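[job 4471] stage=fold_predict status=RUNNING
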Amino acid sequence: MYKDIIYEIKDLRYLKWSKIRKSSGTAGSFLKAYDDSGIVKKYYKLSDYDTVKGIVGHECVNEIIVQRLMDVLGIDHLEYRLINALISIDGKEYKTYLCESEDFKQRDESKIALEDFYVAEKKEDETPLDLCKRMGWEEYIYGMLSVDYLILNRDRHGANIEVLRNRKTKTLRLAPLFDQGLSFVCRCHDKKELKNFDVMKDQKVQAFIGGSSTAENLGLIPKKYLRTLPELKEEDIHMVTGGFEAALDTAYIEKIREMIRRRWMYLDSIRNKR
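[job 4471] inference complete, writing structure tokens
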């Protein structure tokens, strides 16, 4: 039923895990690995890992939920698959759900972090948002700001947005959105924290474009770029968050559903207020 989840255990103990901040398809700072033995290079990333406690996070589940939301919104994104896997880290074996993806670069394309592109190309007193508007990337950026509010994305730093350059065609484009795992209730490590978590709280986030508030960043979006959201029915919410019972406690899934429901309603309402 869910093409983005592989439930059958896959033996990936041969993968070598390391912290790599910048790599196509897996940008971020969590443990990453890759497999280039096949026709298509595969990238893998784990949820939050603790050297003592093991894998303690559920960021990989978040990635799948977010990409389903972006499918509903019609926003381009990197395709992840959630895989039930057996892995080995520092000689110790773990059974976990991890994310698999492929390189989003097309042939003849090279990549550069948006923050580096900004430093190289900005005009005097030009902000990152101003540069993106000058490049004609407004719709992409405003869609990103909307998604980041919906999911309370804590980590949209300047390397989590990439510019792809094709030197043969002399064209530039922004890479599909990726690395949205640090979202929803990712910082709730026990049931007490989960119960007390306010899904509408405007928490401080890291954002290269805009400020440190996802709610305030919605104010940067001109009315004509505010998306008319489709009606999100309960069955839609359950479809977006479905299939994770083996990977994540149902209490977390219910909290994420509440968060999607309430933030979706707020985002839909602000268009009528402008």
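[job 4471] summary: The CA atoms of residues 234 and 261 lie 9 Å apart.
[job 4471] exit 0
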